[in-house]
Amino acid sequence: MKVFKSVTKTDAARLCIFAAFQLFNLVSLVTYTVLYIQNKATVTQILMCVFSALFVSIPDIAQKLCRFRIATPMYVFVLSYALCPMLGHTYGLYYTIKWWDKLLHVTGGVVFALFGAYLPKLFLKDENCNMWLCVLFGFVFSIAIAGLWEFVEYFCDTFFHTD
User: Fold this and answer.
1) What pLDDT does 122 receive?
2) Angle at the Cα of 24 (from 36 to 112), degrees rounded to 5?
């Protein structure tokens, strides 16, 4: 009887990539906590580091809950997308790279469209689901998430005086 499942090179690489992203989040969190104690950082920068660590965990949680596997290039793309808002706010990339926000909106649209295109297959339990249904659902899902995100941004800007 096998106690441990054998680990493939792909699984090991994905684990290393995940660990690197989380290590970066942890180092950022510690750095900005120290800077906050020295009155050189804000509490929102610390919160962005915490939220980034949570967002980077979402792809792995989704894979476990929905019982599917994200392709490794897409996995790295999604992890990068999850890290980018923290880089923008905490490290000031929104202000130093003028197209940073537009990049996040475009990549977010792609991530959510691809995830939305998978949902009909997941819910209908049909691997041969109609391609046009998947494309349409992915497009509509991405637009819906974008709309909800704008409400979240407005709420945060209004009540927490963020930018």
Assistant:
1) 83
2) 105
How far apart are alpha carbons 74 and 41 in whole angstroms? 33
Summary count for the chain: helices (H), strands (E): 6, 0
The tokens of 136 are what? 């349409």
pLDDT-derived band of residue 161, with 50, 70 and 90 as boundaries? confident
Q: What pLDDT is stored for residue 109 in this prediction?
A: 92
Query: How far apart are alpha carbons 115 and 85 in whole angstroms?
Result: 19
Please, what is the end-to-end C-alpha distance for the chain in angstroms? 56
* Separation of CA 88 from chain center: 13
Place of tokens 């009887």: 1
What's the pTM? Answer: 0.82
How crowded is the C-beta side of 159, counted as CA atoms within 13 Å?
A: 6
Question: How confident is the model over 81-118, as pLDDT tens digits?
Answer: 999 999 999 999 999 999 999 999 999 999 999 989 98
DSSP string, 127-153: TT--HHHHHHHHHHHHHHHHHHHHHHH
The CA-atom distances, in angstroms, between 93 and each of 66, 73, 101, 103, 133 are 34, 24, 9, 11, 37
